[in-house]
## 1
Amino acid sequence: MVSPAVYQIRDALAELPFLAHIETPDDYERALELMDQLVDDYEANKPLVEILAVSIERWEDHAGEFADFNAAVAGTDRGIAVLRTLMVQHGLGVADLPEIGSKGNVSKILNGVDGKKLTRNHIEALCNRFGVSPALFF
């Protein structure tokens, strides 16, 4: 015997098929609109947000319209991407990161000049400053 929940899920997916799989740009737009509504009350909608997020991520990973972006992201050092994101979120420039050193050193690290990279000490200091996990940088 099939559980009534199975029929409810089937009905929901028939109404909103993009919950499980986005197939067109229109589905993608509808999924984004729904996500905007769901995150307004994240705690109540968390299971739906998680399901829809997987569907959106799958579309963005494979849709041609995101190919250039995905290629650029794939070639970016994760630690640098996290650092750039933190800088944008906090409105910081290269002169605002004494944890990394001078303005010139920060710029070299952000641009990969002379093989400069974030060190363990840099990452620890940034994690302390911004209250994030070191795992974000790896």
Note: The mean pLDDT is 91.
## 2
Amino acid sequence: MGFAAETNPVDALKMVFRRHASGVSIITLNAENGDPVGFTATSMTSLGATPPLASFNVASGASTWAHLCKAKYVAIHTLTEANIQLAQKLAADHTKRFLDDDWKSGPNGLPIFEGVSSVLICRIREIHSVESNAVVVVEVIEGLVGVEANPLIYHQRTYKTTTDIV
């Protein structure tokens, strides 16, 4: 076989997932005081349609972690190639993520960004802590469908579009 063995499991995990392209989404919610908070995620996935469930992962050291543990609802935004700056902004300094006038209050008072391909409004069902991370399971209660366009993906530690890797 044409594989090189990597015996260090941490290095193996990093190498494998750098080769695995992931869709990029942003997760938004409200802090207890009503302020918007959010982050960029590459771990969002569907768990099934009956009932409509999705999940995403988050580090327990993330700036949104304490707010997420107390929240009832989140909005999951799927991104297109036109949203690369939005993905970068929600992955950068948490104090600057909602300073611009590019979002509004949506269903359940959730912060919703304009110009994304879609938004799932979700109720948090379960949070499973695992080491210094967590898996968040959500139930979809509403969907806002925008324009279909080439998706934004994360591959080899950078944002790309499907045309970049074809």
Note: DSSP finds four helices and twelve strands in the chain.
## 3
Amino acid sequence: VLTTALLTWLCAHSVVSAKGVYLEPVAFINNVFSGQPPAPRKLTIKGELAQDIKNILEHRYKKIRLSYWQHQQRTVWILEEIGKERPITAGFVVENNKIQDFKVLVFRESRGWEIRNEFFTRQFSGAYLKTNQRLDRHIDNITGATMSVNAMKKLSRMALYLHNHVTTQ
């Protein structure tokens, strides 16, 4: 009986500890720019841009204005997407139309937290968009985290698309 109670507590504790802030968005931005981030810029999501994002996410993005940081050909995006039930906040660094870095910043779901691990996030390193707005590579799934994985694939496509949008204007 004690073993069952201990096992139940450990399982519940691991789920609770999987949720939370892994890295504050401000700290992520500061790390990317070595403590000297450029002033944030604003992008209004409307018209064709809104439709293209809707096509990538398969739903309308909840924000109308989006902050991003840009220095030369490097952009940083803090984006959110629902995993199963709650938003997952992720940070993307895009340079020369390729993902340079990607981190799960805030995780609010009860399952799927494994997406924060390097074995998953490094799959996105160097990824770019093909002409059909698809990633140039296959991203391996994680058993039990399918919805979180899918959310991060969509956000990576969105970050790449937004980078291309703001750097080619």
Note: The longest strand covers residues 98-107.
